[in-house]
Amino acid sequence: MLLVKSGQLRACILSDEGREITIYRLFDRDICLFSASCLLRSAQFNITIEAEKDTSLWVIPAEVYRDIMEASAAAANYTNEIMAARFSEVMWLMEQIMWKSMDKRVAAFLLNEASIENTTRLSITHETIASHLGTHREVVTRMLRYLQGEGMVQLSRGTVELLDKRRLTDLRDS
Questions:
Q1: Which end of the chain is less crowded, N or C, counting CB atoms within 10 A of the terminal residue's CB?
Q2: Phi, psi for 95 (deg, rounded to 5)
Q3: Could you tell me what percent of the chain has a pLDDT over 70?
Q4: What is the pLDDT of residues 97-130, one digit of tens each?
Q5: Taking every pair of C-alpha atoms in the chain, what is the biggest distance, in angstroms?
Q6: C-alpha 12: how far from its chain's center?
Q7: How far apart are CA 134 and CA 31, in angstroms?
């Protein structure tokens, strides 16, 4: 099990074809229970964890954490709360994939990134956005060009600048 001291991790799943999609992210003091699949006796999935920023973390052996949960109702309850939160994030992601158009998903992603990074000028590639959203780079490039044509973003090499957060928010929420 991973416990993030500081930094930022990305949990994603990979398809047989090599495409990936972000299922959730971990920040300072977050716990990644899904990385300890032996904690989840009937779990039948694999996730990949990658560092998005310089990260330091503690690695807690699953058997140690399992013993802590058995000895402490508070630790077991905390673990259940984390699992419920992660499950909610995955369900939200499924809803986005199934019911939201790509322009809305890209707008939501850009707004979320701007919030995480506390800036409107994102140093990010189209390929990285595609990996987070589980789509192809070409699809993201088309969507970003559309958003640029509408005056919502400005594109330059390796950078997406949010020019009109209100309109991006309206698009995301429509």
A1: C
A2: -60, -45
A3: 94
A4: 999 999 999 999 999 999 999 999 999 999 999 9
A5: 58
A6: 7
A7: 23
In DSSP terms, 155 is beta-bridged to: 160
Query: Model's pTM, two decimal places?
Result: 0.83
17-62 pLDDT, tens per residue?
Answer: 888 999 999 999 998 877 655 555 666 677 889 999 999 999 998 8
